[in-house]
Amino acid sequence: MSEDTKQDDQALADEWAAALEEQTPDNESDADPWAEALAEQAESEQSTQSQANPAPVAKLDDDSKPRSDVDLDMVLDIPVTISMEIGRTKINIRNLLQLSQGSVVELDRLAGEPMDVLVNDTLIAHGEVVVVNDKFGIRLTDVISAAERIKKLR
């Protein structure tokens, strides 16, 4: 090593030593400000915990039991779509385009089989077609129970 390199290294070491001496606290007041802040926070938390009272807990109602005082007037005016389905079938587009007046489309139900009654596309009953005063109607023969409808939703 050359003499200049040794002098440069010594000068650099001296600068580092001086910088480190500046960093070290001379007295307690120059101590780490983070340590002081953490100590203050810990003291304030301890005093707060000793003074704090737990909040009262209100008893919640059990909603699992049916209530008789429920007001259903709000939902009685909600419109729903009810439809009766005689049957279904699948055909390709070629046959669909060839349909004309008088064409017959075969359905997946037999004659005399009950129709499906759907409310908002959900099966709620089965029934048979009736004619009353020259108008078609449906007589419900089997209504799906509420429990069964709920099972289908899940």
Automatic annotation (TrEMBL):
Renumbered residue ranges of the record's region Disordered: 1-70
Gene Ontology molecular function: cytoskeletal motor activity
Native source organism of the sequence: Methylophaga lonarensis MPL
Biological process according to GO: bacterial-type flagellum-dependent cell motility; chemotaxis
Protein name: Flagellar motor switch protein FliN
GO cellular component: bacterial-type flagellum basal body; plasma membrane
Compartments where located: Cell membrane; Bacterial flagellum basal body
Stretches with biased composition (Acidic residues): 23-33
Biased composition (Basic and acidic residues): 59-70
